[in-house]
Each structure stands twice: as structure tokens, then as C-alpha cells.
Amino acid sequence: MTQVSIVIPCYNYGRFLREAVESSISQTWREKEVCVVDDGSTDSTGEVLRELDPSVLVLRVANGGVARARNLGARETSGEWLCFLDGDDGLEPGRLERCREVLGRTRAAAIICGWRDVDDDGAPLADAIPHPIGSGLDYLLANRSFPVHCALVRRSAFAAAGGFFEGEMGPSWPEDTDLWFRLAAMSGGFEFVPEVLCRFRRHSRTVSRSERIRESQVGFRQMIARLGGLLRDVVPADGLRKYHVLVETSFACRYLRRGDLAAARETLRYVWELYEKSS
Question: What are phi and psi of 56, to 5 degrees?
């Protein structure tokens, strides 16, 4: 019986895809399956896919976004637990085995581990280990998150939460964080494994420009507005506003680091309005 399904969506990450797949199939946990969803790639992804181990399930679809690709991979696999690994990231050796004991006893909707930031060439940058703060919701409301592959998600909880949201919400919709909130609100919440078990690639080309920061900021505002309706019986409105204050403050800091004083000033005015409503 398959216990863990590793779903790897890939859009034009042919350069890194082989590493992601090999880090998955080399996991010593035998009751696993690996599925790659090629989300309409136009680079070398197709060539890499043709050379993969035949045990890997390959799905090819027209480009529809990472949320749709992840959901498709989840539907086409059968493991009790799901691990969503982006095509440019990787799993450390023993990532699944180190969670075996927790998987056997937990009632959590998701099990969260730590990660190592690496550069384009895979050289280590920094380690991060998430430490629990109360419930899973408390952790998220403190404006803390984690890369998507740091979560092992219970399939039944993933289905009950509705999977990744596929609606048209703009180019920088935070689909991961949106799902984490919906999962954390469910019975069982999160359980944390305080070990570095994943690699998260920080691309040199992804240094944020003000336009990219603004897109992400709009995406978070849309997500918070949506969650306010979905989770009104679980998260107090005041708690979500305080979370919004933390999120907007982090965006103001990002603008300041870019030297965009006008955007930072505008964001801080917005923060003050939110803070007044929360106080």
C-alpha cells in the first residue's frame, strides 16, 4: 500500500527537475510513489522526463498554473499522505523516514519539518526550523510559513479542505499559505518535526522588484479577504486583522530594502489603519 505520494509540478525547471526527482525516488521509505506533472513546459523538461526512472508517473498538461498541477497530481496518486515538491527544490536523504514515527501516531492534518535554503548551484545558504507556537493557526497568524514540500499533508484533510485554490486571483496568489490556513483550521492542526529535511532553492534572479512585491502584496490582501469569509467561525476577525498588520509591515520593509520610499510610506499608512481597527 502506498503511504506517501510525492507530487512534483514542473514549469520550465528542466535544469533542476532531475535533482528533484532523484531526491524523491532515492528516499528509503519503500511505500511511496513519485508523480511529475509537466505544466506545459517549453524548456528541456520534456527531454528530462523521457530519461526518468520508469517507476515515475508522468502527467503532461497545458499550462494552467501550479495549483491546478498539484491538484491533478493528488487526484492521480493514492498515498495516504501527500508531499508537494516543486521542480526546482529537493528532499534531504531520509526525509520520509524521519517522519515515520510521527505518521504512525499523529492525528494532525499536516506534519511540518525544517528546511535548508540553497542557491542556484545547490550551495547551502541558511537553515530554518519551524518551532510550534500554540496551534497551527497560532503559528500562521504570527506570519510564519514554510516551503510547500516541508509539509506532509494527510490526503483526507487535503480533500476536505478543497485542495489548492484554482481561482483566478492574479500572478502572485499565495496558494500555499491559503491552503495552510484551511488545513490548520481543521481538527488535528499541525505537528512539527524540528529537523532540516528539505532543500529550498533561492534563485538569484528572484530578487524582488517593486512590481513583484506589489503583485505579492495584492495576492495576500485577496487571500486574507477570502479567508475572512471561509474561517469566520474559527479565526476571530481581530486575529486576522493583526495577522494582516504583520503581513503588510513585512511588505513595507521589503519596499524599504528596495529603496521604494513611496510604496513603503503608502503601505505603512495602510498598516496604521489596520492597527487602529485592531486596537
Answer: -80, 125
